[in-house]
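Need residues for this backbone.
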C-alpha cells in the first residue's frame, strides 16, 4: 500500500463554510481517508502545526499578526498549499473590512455596539492584532493550488484530492496552479 499523505487543514479568517464543504464529501471521505493521515485540522485534536506535512488546505484570509505567523509556519512545513475558497484567494467577505480599516471595525464592535465597556478600551491581551488590511494568502506566501468558490464545491475538493493522491497532473478548469 502506498505511503499515506500527511494532510493538514486550517481555517484562518474564514467562516468555516469551506471546511463544511470538505465534510459535504460525505461517503467519499471514506475513500479519501484510506490515503491520508490528518495530522492537523479543526477536525482533530492537534495543538501545534507539525513538520513534514505533504499538503495543507487553508481556508480564510489573513487578518491578524497571528494569521501571518501561522501561514509562514505552514509554508515552511508543507510541500503543497491549497488556498480553499474565495476568502483565501481574494479576501472576499473577510476583506470587506478593508473598506473601513481596522480602527473603524474595532470602534464599531467594542464601543458603538457594546452593551458593557465602561473603560472604552479594545481588548489588548491574548488577542491577535488586526492588520490594517486583510490579505489573500498568495500576497504573503507561495500558494501551489487555488480552489475558488464561496464555499468551494465539495466535488471540486474531492476531484483535487483524488488527483493529488493519484499523482495526476491537474487539468480541472476551475483549479489553477500559480508558479513563481
Ligand atoms: S469563501 Fe465563503 S464559505 Fe469559504 S470561508 Fe469565505 S465566506 Fe466562508
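Answer:
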Amino acid at each position: 500500500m502506498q505511503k499515506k499523505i500527511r494532510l493538514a487543514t486550517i481555517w484562518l479568517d474564514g467562516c468555516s463554510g469551506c471546511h463544511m464543504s470538505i465534510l459535504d464529501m460525505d461517503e467519499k471521505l471514506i475513500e479519501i481517508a484510506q490515503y491520508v493521515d490528518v495530522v492537523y485540522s479543526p477536525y482533530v485534536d492537534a495543538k501545534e502545526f507539525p513538520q513534514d506535512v505533504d499538503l495543507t488546505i487553508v481556508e480564510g484570509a489573513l487578518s491578524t499578526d497571528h494569521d501571518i505567523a501561522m501561514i509562514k509556519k505552514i509554508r515552511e512545513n508543507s510541500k503543497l498549499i491549497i488556498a480553499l475558497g474565495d476568502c483565501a484567494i481574494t479576501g472576499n467577505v473577510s476583506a470587506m473590512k478593508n473598506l473601513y480599516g481596522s480602527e473603524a471595525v474595532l470602534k464599531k464592535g467594542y464601543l458603538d455596539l457594546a452593551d458593557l465597556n465602561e473603560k472604552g478600551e479594545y481588548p489588548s491581551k491574548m488577542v491577535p492584532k488586526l492588520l490594517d488590511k486583510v490579505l489573500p494568502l498568495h500576497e504573503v506566501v507561495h500558494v501551489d493550488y487555488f480552489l475558488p468558490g464561496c464555499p468551494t464545491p465539495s466535488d471540486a475538493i474531492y476531484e483535487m484530492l483524488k488527483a493529488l493522491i493519484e499523482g495526476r497532473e491537474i487539468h480541472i478548469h476551475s483549479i489553477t496552479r500559480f508558479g513563481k
